[in-house]
Design goal:
Function: Catalyzes the ATP-dependent phosphorylation of thiamine-monophosphate (TMP) to form thiamine-pyrophosphate (TPP), the active form of vitamin B1.
Number of strands: 12
Number of helices: 9
Strand order of the largest sheet: 8-10-7-11-9-12
CATH topology of the largest domain: 60s Ribosomal Protein L30, Chain: A
Helix content: 25-40%
Organism: Actinomadura verrucosospora
Keywords: ATP-binding, Kinase, Magnesium, Metal-binding, Nucleotide-binding, Thiamine biosynthesis, Transferase
Shape: globular
Pathway: Cofactor biosynthesis; thiamine diphosphate biosynthesis; thiamine diphosphate from thiamine phosphate: step 1/1
CATH superfamily of the largest domain: PurM-like, N-terminal domain
CATH architecture of the largest domain: 2-Layer Sandwich
Number of domains: 2
Family: Belongs to the thiamine-monophosphate kinase family.
Bound molecules: adenosine-5'-triphosphate, thiamin phosphate, magnesium ion
Length: 332
Amino acid sequence: MHGARTSPDEDGGPRSAGGHWAGTGRMGTIGELGEFGLIGRLTRRLPQGPAVRLGPGDDAAVVAAPDGRVVATTDLLVEGRHFRRDWSGPYDIGHKAAAQNLADVVAMGARPTALLVGFAAPPSTDAAWAERLYDGLADECRRAGASVAGGDVVGAPEVTLAVTALGDLGGGAPLTRSGARPGDVVAVRGRLGHASAGLALLAAGRDGPAELLAAHRRPEPPYEAGAEARAAGATALLDVSDGLVQDLGHIAAASGVRIDVDSATLVVPEVLGPDGLRHVLTGGEDHGFAGTFPPDSPPPPSWTVIGTVGRGAGVRVDGRVPDATGWDHFRG
Ligand SMILES: Nc1ncnc2c1ncn2[C@@H]1O[C@H](COP(=O)(O)OP(=O)(O)OP(=O)(O)O)[C@@H](O)[C@H]1O
Ligand SMILES: Cc1ncc(C[n+]2csc(CCOP(=O)(O)O)c2C)c(N)n1
Ligand SMILES: [Mg+2]
Ligand SMILES: [Mg+2]
Ligand SMILES: [Mg+2]
């Protein structure tokens, strides 16, 4: 029987009532498996998509790049910083490591093709825990149409994932942060504030609402947003990783424009609680998308228009410079 803090266990991973990995005890530890035993157990769970011409098993992988250019991005996921093993199960952590990288490829207007995965964990880690993590990683890759081309494993005091994602622009121009122009509208696609609200609940020792805890554990970037933005003629695009205001600030700075957000246009679901607007404005890690669109080619209805681009600099919310903007790794 699972406790209320257990995320929907379609991963099938065992957990105690508190959300901890309960372990199977059947397969032993990764220390017992050894480096190459572990690599074998992990890589056989991975999807092999068409772009990966040579996958795990050699000194390097070979990935097709029909466009002639490769989109490449990397993000780290560190235990205690991005996740806690008592708050997230292995499937959640694998899912999140894939999602946060795949979202960056999509945010360039590209199609994700392959991931390279660096995996560090203590030798005492359950082998089954590591396998569930790879199941989460593999399933999220499948959802985005990508596969895992290779990686590395290493023993370390804490779990760390260093994921590199590659993507294909399919002959199109990249959707950068620098193309916003005065007169454009600003629009968002996907959840905002949910992961942040879920994290606050976990930090407060709460066991629900389940959808918010799940949002922290398994971000769900709407991967179709990149193609939608491109088709609509977006001038700039990024995924919201650190907080809406902070990330819009990157578009404002790179494009040399001012962005004005009208908070009344933001969707703040009741479930986010009394701090809902703060979570939506400054909460990262849902990996929704924010983009700018010329006034004569607005985004499709799946997007919400939340503001405008003007001359000047910085981001204003309801005409004011906000005190909080989002996450900074070195400022807490
Ligand atoms: N250690 C580094 N060396 C070289 N470039 C870096 C380094 N760290 C970040 N960058 C570059 O700085 C830019 C901003 O990085 P940032 O990590 O904030 O973007 P992101 O990956 O979209 O956001 P997030 O990490 O919050 O998901 C990116 O172009 C990134 O490649
Ligand atoms: C245990 C724990 N404590 C705090 C947080 C919050 N957090 C960590 S990184 C980040 C921004 C995006 O990261 P990056 O820029 O590295 O992609 C946020 C909001 C968390 N997820 N887990
Ligand atoms: Mg990054
Ligand atoms: Mg990004
Ligand atoms: Mg960040």
